[in-house]
Amino acid sequence: MVRFLPSGDRALVIEFGDTVDRAINAQVMALADRIEAELITGVVELVPTFRSLMVHYDPLVVSNANLRQTITGLLDGHTAVTRRGRLWQLPACYEGDCAPDLDDVARATKLTTAEVVATHAHETYRVYCIGFLPGFPYMGDLPAPLELPRRPSPRIRVPMGSLSMAMRMTGIYPLESPGGWHLIGRTPVRIFDRRRADAVLLQPGDEVQFTPVSRIEYDRLEAAAIAGTMNVTPARSP
């Protein structure tokens, strides 16, 4: 059942469930698409999450009650279809200091390091939502053999581009920051880059695949990324 929850006097949350689930997330994204298409007067910003949509609005333009009524009308009779977002194939190095937790993850999962890499790189991940840092993608669903809790102690510094994993999620650190997820690789692709017209590369509903590359190839691509000459385009458009 869909629930409407107030969030202060400038936002309304529409909640579709209480689990991380692709079908629920598809409903969230479908409603976001409908609201964007309707160009509802007073709506300022949409923030999709795993299982809910936060709608920020100007209370001087539209009331909470009227906004809720309008959104209820958009929900009636509509069936959510999983959005076919962009597909990104990102190079990733799973070697050496790019993957400081790879050995620990292998021991904890009772897999070899090669099996961890192959399992992680085989999956096509869905970007559920963006948060924590500018452009940080929360992506699922991590294959069950790789499920682990967060690290017992977070790191003070996680390098930009690090591929991380915890629970059923995997992510990419767009900037250097503290972090408590397991680090098993690194991509040279800038997930957040102010030099681009759209600084945030990935969007909710996108899909991501990782292509393992050697450290030599990673260093070559990293140099191109620093210089701003790396060509990053989706392998598939919507």
Can you walk through the features of this model?
With 238 residues, the protein is of the alpha+beta class. Helices cover 25% and strands 28% of the residues. It has five helices and 13 strands. It has helices spanning 22-38, 64-75, 102-109, 113-122, 215-227, and strands spanning 3-6, 11-15, 43-48, 52-57, 87-93, 125-130, 137-140, 155-158, 162-166, 169-172, 177-179, 182-186, 207-213. A four-stranded antiparallel beta sheet has the order 1-2-4-3, with helices on one face. Strands 5-13-6-7 form a four-stranded mixed beta sheet. It is elongated.
Note the main attributes of this structure.
238 residues, alpha+beta, four-stranded antiparallel sheet, four-stranded mixed sheet, 5 helices, 13 strands
Spell out the blueprint of helices and strands:
Blueprint: E1 3-6, E2 11-15, H1 22-38, E3 43-48, E4 52-57, H2 64-75, E5 87-93, H3 102-109, H4 113-122, E6 125-130, E7 137-140, E8 155-158, E9 162-166, E10 169-172, E11 177-179, E12 182-186, E13 207-213, H5 215-227
Parallel strand pairs: 5-13
Antiparallel strand pairs: 1-2, 2-4, 3-4, 6-7, 6-13, 8-11, 9-10, 9-12
Helix pairs in contact: 3-4
